[in-house]
Amino acid sequence: MTWVQDFSQGRADQKDLLGGKGANLAEMTRMGIPVPPGFTVTTEACLAYLDGDETPPEGMTEEVEAAVARLADGVHRRFGDVADPLLLSVRSGARFSMPGMMDTVLDVGLNPDTVKGLEAASGNRHFAIDSWRRFTEMFADVVLEVPRSALRQVRGRHLEAAGVLDAAELHAEQALALVADLRDLVEQRTGEPFPDDPMDQLHRCVIAVFRSWNGHRARAYRELTGISHDLGTAVNVQAMVFGNAGDDSGTGVVFTRDPATGAPEPYGDWLDDAQGEDVVAGTRATKHFDELADFHAGAHAELLEVLAALEDRYRDMCDVEFTVERGRLWVLQTRVGKRSARAAVRMAVDMANEGLITRRDAIGRVEPGQLERLLHPRFDRMADYEVLVSGLAASPGAASGVVCFTWEEAVERTEAGDDVILVREETSPEDIEGMVAARGIVTSRGGLVSHAAVVARGLGRPAVCGAADLEVDEHA
User: Fold this and answer.
1) The model's pTM
2) For residue 160, what pLDDT is reported?
3) Which sign does the torsion angle of CA 347, 348, 350, 356 carry?
4) Which residues, in sequence order, are bridge partners of residue 86?
5) How far apart are CA 183 and CA 273, in angstroms?
């Protein structure tokens, strides 16, 4: 049994083995699209782990280490090198898309020695320390299972002392102090020092992604959407590329067509000097995709070509995550994108008229449930009403109800018979049950590619995102 497969070996039709993300990464590699090199640990390895008393199947550890060596040879950097370290991202990827329901760890391989090498190689101390801060918090949360509330408390103290809202705004020395306190917290909670061996970090991350397949939010999402619990998840390991490497770097998410309206133009959000989770988390105000042309015209033009090639290959609207690292474009993943019911109908008709799909395909693209959603209630355009606040039309429809500020309260009030509107600064995967229970969703941060927007469209819930005039204080 082979548990690991390089991207260069796979194909788009291997989603059962490689997961949707891994199969698409392999297909883009075959197409010549600029994908950071990497490999996939297969769904069979996940199932063998889950069926084998949660121990790695025989040979998997050795195959992962051999794949890392091949990857290092290809990029001419070494994993764990203290001079110019190769860093890795570890992402889940099941057969069917489950946005944000399973775990990711970025910047794997950083420790007190390699972070100095990253600083020396990049010439950017803030970038190196901020990357270490991101890795430390992700690893503590996902792998070591330190409670998020405890991690937030430590982060919050440092943000308050620095007078900033986002940890990425901390100066290098402030971020270094936060890393030290996070590492102390890990040792207090686990009884062991923070793991600093890069290969040990990687193996732990792979196992953590396997475990997340049976996590509470992942199971809840599968039950909601009718996805089988028996499929398992693949794990995709890639060379890190950095959208937070300076003023000539950025990251974003773009759809080949507008996922809310179906309009046949690319729609997306991006941020300069940022990593991918910054875009979907809504912690910073994003920029519209068109503005990327002013930021880096070459990367924008190349990305437009990539979008056209992907839509032609998949014959559907694609959701694409990208990074610009020091002016160079990298495509991190693609998948067939989730869309509103209105967009599904328009895209099906447009694509049939364009000759991209047949009329029979177009009919099959629109599910009966989506047609039903087109009959959702809407506000009477002739009615007289006072507008409290405005935001982005992330998912269509209209709703009214009791405001709830946590997913737990939303579920409780719904079970008691109330209609509920879930109001959050931004949603996260932990909010999925509250989003299902709610009649509508409002967030004060985030754009049309945020977690709240993507999930609400998939659920058919009306949602307004990025209502920036709202100050949401769930505790008060």
Assistant:
1) 0.81
2) 94
3) positive
4) 79
5) 25
Per-residue pLDDT of 152-192, as tens digits, reads 999 999 999 999 988 989 999 999 999 999 999 999 999 99
Task: List C-alpha distances in Å: 136 to 85, 152, 182.
Answer: 16, 13, 7
- Lookup: tokens for 245: 């490497």
Q: What confidence score (pLDDT) does residue 284 get?
A: 74
Nearest alpha carbon to residue 259 among 101, 99, 387: 99
218-224, Cβ contacts within 8 angstroms, sequence gap of 24 or more: 218/98, 218/101, 218/102, 220/432, 220/433, 220/436, 221/98, 221/101, 221/432, 222/98, 224/432, 224/436, 224/459
Report the 3 state secondary structure along 337-368. Answer: CCCCHHHHHHHHHHHHHHCCCCHHHHHHHCCH
Distance (Å, whole) CA 218 – CA 233:
11
Closest CA to 449 of 348, 358, 320: 320
CB neighbours of residue 293 within 10 Å:
14
H-helix or E-strand spanning residue 225: helix 216-225
121 φ/ψ angles, rounded to the nearest 5 degrees: -70, -35
Structure tokens given for 84: 């110019």
Q: Which helix (H) or strand (E) holds 17?
A: helix 15-31
Chain centroid, CA 21 distance in Å: 12
By the 8 A CB rule, do 135 and 85 touch?
no
Three-class SS state of 90: strand
Q: What is the mean pLDDT of each run of 10 residues along the chain (476 residues)?
A: 91 94 96 97 95 90 97 95 96 83 87 97 94 96 93 95 91 97 97 97 96 86 86 95 91 94 94 83 80 94 97 96 95 92 94 97 89 79 89 89 95 96 91 94 89 87 93 83
Contact 464, 425 (CB under 8 A): no
